[in-house]
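ENTRY TYPE: paired fold submission
RECORD: A
CONTENT: sequence, then structure tokens
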Amino acid sequence: MALAFSVARAAEPNTLTAEEQKAGWKLLFDGKSGAGWHSQNKDTFPTKGWVIENGTLRKVAKERGGDLLSEKTYSEFDFKWDWKIAPGGNNGIKYFVTDERGGVGHEYQMLDDATEAEGKDNGVHSTASFYAVLAPFPNKVKALNPAGEWNSSRVYVKGNHVEHWLNGQKVLEYELGSDEVKAGVAKSKFKAVPHFGERVKGHILLTDHNDEATFRSLKILDLSKD
């Protein structure tokens, strides 16, 4: 009975379990307001393009309101969130986003791989990739739920080690500053961005893409020592 209750609690959106609270996890979205988030280059939540409804944060299709940045910054962290996109949708969550670099950061891609050419090859633009730099493992194909259904994702950063997770499976890992990352960055559009591919302290960013995307249960454990 206790186990069943624990599982039910873990599945409830926009909440922290007793174990998460004890460990120091924090909700980045309370399911009711835009507290903790602001538009890029502003200190307020956008007045259009993003809607809070039924315990979710939804990016409105074809209505641009600006990227959403977390108020706090992180250099090492464990970050989890639930998401779903509309058929044909394209979105992403970025990390290591600094004010100096604008909206540029390492991106965990979120894509309708089944219909988008960028996703069908499971390459550097597919879901759970380090966007434009590193492709996910082949097992990611089986882990991804289709457009319109919820997925659970995770980005873990400790020291120079980074992991991307999808629906309970680790689907990518890399080392910041490694030869592999440097080679990927050199072939990408980020090759001229200072310190791209290295660990920096920055915001979490929800992308203001043109397609609909819905988020819930955004939570983070700050592992930073600085």
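RECORD: B
CONTENT: sequence, then structure tokens
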Amino acid sequence: MSNDDVRFSTINDSNTNQLIEAISKILIEKDTNRNLSSIRKKWYWQYKNPLTGKSFIYAAWVDNEIIGYYHIITNNFIINNKKFLIGNVQDVAVSEKFRGKGIFRKLSEFANNEINKYVDILYTFPNKASINTFTKYNNFKLISSLPIYLLPIKMQNIIRSKFKFFGLENIFNLPVKIYLKLKKNNLDNLEKIVLINEFDDSVCNVFKKFNQLHSSYLLRDKKFLNWRYKESPNGNFYTFGLKRNNEITAVIVVKREKIFKNEAYIITDFAFSKDVKDLKKLLSNFYNTPDKNSLTIPDFVILSGLSPYLKSIKKCGLISVPQFLIPRKIKLLTKIVESSLKKGDIKYDSWLVTLGDWDVF
């Protein structure tokens, strides 16, 4: 097969079933999710019914077979109080037997030439296999590797999942408890942690105020939050808030995950409305809050993202994980498409990014 045998196109409704079957086959090659029904359900939520109603999917073909795909979902994005359309490049792959032939490079060039007509800016979180194509051939700029912060809670379980110490791992739990007690931000009178069941105006207002502390951010309004977390087929998300005098002042969205056999809570979104101390109190206390959904106390909590407030937020016991210990580094790349946007318009040190931007959770 020569590269001349490969053609590229935009996916339309008539190709959807064939695309989903191709996705299933490639995921089987990667030894990941192979359930066609769940793939279809997630795909329709993510790309057929996105918040803006606009997503763009491109494919590489050999004869009548889809051998590669490139998905871009769009969202409303605020830069210096002005609304733009941002494209998030997600779900990109080429079938195993066609890799190493430059097909992904040509597919990405085709997709980027097409998407430039519709969006103002692009961003993505590529893996090691695709990052070079984005930076070398598609003019994406590496902004940052997202820091990972870990709040250890049951140190003995964390150690036990990796090593066999025949019970001696329990001795590590005492210093962790002392550390957490020293770092804990205790609740004051009239403050309590509540489980939030809906994104009502009081909750959305917290996100709105927190967003506006940044110069650039994905618009996390009620529609976005409901689509991202209530309508998502990616499993259950739990929303916790700090309540003071009947007012919600800080919010986190949490996803339960099994990581290295450990019970983990992933903070996918976070916000405060008045004082960063409120968010620190929430992070220090939410995992001890019993609820009727039988949430157990996790072995650890993970927080990641970009915000100038993270330096202060992490001062509630969160520990920075060295980048060399992170198996899947979360690298943020971006590319400005709209000619009216100047290089300095996006202040990257004031761009709010959370794990809610990433399609993995």
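NOTES ON RECORD B: Confidence is low (pLDDT under 50) at residues 165-169. The first strand starts at residue 6 and ends at 10.
STATUS: closed
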